Amino acid sequence: MTIQPPATGCRDVPVLKERGQREVFCGLTGIIWLHRKMQDAFFLVVGSRTCAHLLQSAAGVMIFAEPRFGTAILEEKDLAGLADANTELDREVARLLSRRPDIRQLFLVGSCPSEVIKLDLHRAAERLSALHAPHVRVLNFTGSGIETTFTQGEDACLAAMVPALAPTQARELLLVGALPDVVEDQALALLSAMGIGPVRCLPSRRADDAPAVGPNTVFALTQPFLGSTHEALTRRGARHIPAPFPFGEEGTTLWLRAVAKEFGVSDATFDAVTAAPRARAIKAIASQADTLNGKTLFMFPDSQLEPPLARFLTRECGMVALEVGTPYLHRDILGPDLDLLAKGPVISEGQDVDRQLDRARAARPDLTVCGLGLANPLEAEGLTTKWAIELVFTPVHFYEQAGDLAALFARPLRRRALLNASKLEAAE
Ligand code: SF4
């Protein structure tokens, strides 16, 4: 396999940095996919009724007999400093844990209100861990909208777990990022077929399977938004394997190739293991690419997945990127993707939503990827949109999902084409 990088990639292009009003979910959103992944964890948001509503509406489609997240509501008296929020928190946690012996990890999740009243959740987690050890480990992270955009909640959660991981001298591969189980199993099967192992996952599905970490650990990120986790693992002596992210056939092949190289896998083995799924991915993408080919793309900053997805959509689906926005641009992590993304689109970091809307309106892209709040008004103006949030709720990584990933972007374009056709018919 030879990959042709563009003559000039985007790694060193000037970045448009914006620091204005932003339209993006807070980090609490990550709880929706994290609680599905970590089967004996509970996420207790220490927040307001607004936070509870966000979680309920984002998770609205899932009704659990025993949910794995909840909100400890800070009432007005807490916010006014009239009650000891720590005492109430201890009481809530004791009640929860006595009712739910299945909980092995408890995350206290900070929010805007808990930050405003400066509730020290780190200290609370230490106190509660001492009280409920060894059965339950209590950790904390923030999902506050003041500090985090929506995928940063996962990063903050995983980074909080790293210092608590056991030390090891073993040479192990660590896959980092909360993938749906079925997707994680596909990745593990490919790695195992190449003879790569032992492989551990962060987060693990159960607390007892938590990985250990040390100077001989090498890790591969499966999500581009894990900057703090990358830093925390590096501090523990682990080494990152840089690679493009496993989106599409090309991204998956390059990601696997980087890991295979680290573990000395021969080209023959690599090709034998990947040939069939690669062929399936190429075919599945081709069935969507006709709709996407030549269409222009404008990405608002939401999930930090934007640069690798722009790489996939331009190189494998023939789209033309006009602007690729991302809340944060972590150059070390995204460098391999930026190398492959041909110079041309505006690369923007952060947001000043009004200015960005002006640029989108002037560009009139065929497809705009943006948050829920912007999608409806832009649709009303005749632009075709894709909700960025679907990209984190839908299985999109690795070969078997490559066609579905392309379809996520092709669907709104097909819908718009059908609408236009039926309008034309009605007018005739
Ligand atoms: S953490 Fe902040 S932004 Fe998020 S739901 Fe709560 S109040 Fe809103």
TrEMBL record:
UniProt-listed GO biological process terms: light-independent bacteriochlorophyll biosynthetic process; photosynthesis, dark reaction
EC primary class: oxidoreductase
Annotated residues for binding of [4Fe-4S] cluster: C26, C51, C112
Keyword Lipid metabolism: no
Listed Gene3D superfamilies: Nitrogenase molybdenum iron protein domain (3.40.50.1980)
Domain of life of the native organism: Bacteria
Pfam families registered for this protein in UniProt: Oxidored_nitro
SUPFAM superfamilies from the UniProt entry: Helical backbone' metal receptor
Domain Nitrogenase/oxidoreductase component residue range list: 26-399
Catalysed reaction equations from the record: chlorophyllide a + oxidized 2[4Fe-4S]-[ferredoxin] + 2 ADP + 2 phosphate = protochlorophyllide a + reduced 2[4Fe-4S]-[ferredoxin] + 2 ATP + 2 H2O
CC cofactor: [4Fe-4S] cluster
InterPro entries from the UniProt entry: LIPOR_BchN/ChlN, Nase/OxRdtase_comp1, Protochl_reductN
HAMAP family listed in its UniProt record: ChlN_BchN (MF_00352)
Similarity comment text for this entry: Belongs to the BchN/ChlN family.
Task of the protein: Component of the dark-operative protochlorophyllide reductase (DPOR) that uses Mg-ATP and reduced ferredoxin to reduce ring D of protochlorophyllide (Pchlide) to form chlorophyllide a (Chlide). This reaction is light-independent. The NB-protein (BchN-BchB) is the catalytic component of the complex.
Subunit annotation: Protochlorophyllide reductase is composed of three subunits; BchL, BchN and BchB. Forms a heterotetramer of two BchB and two BchN subunits.
Protein known as: Light-independent protochlorophyllide reductase subunit N
UniProt organism field: Rhodobacter ferrooxidans
Underlying gene: bchN
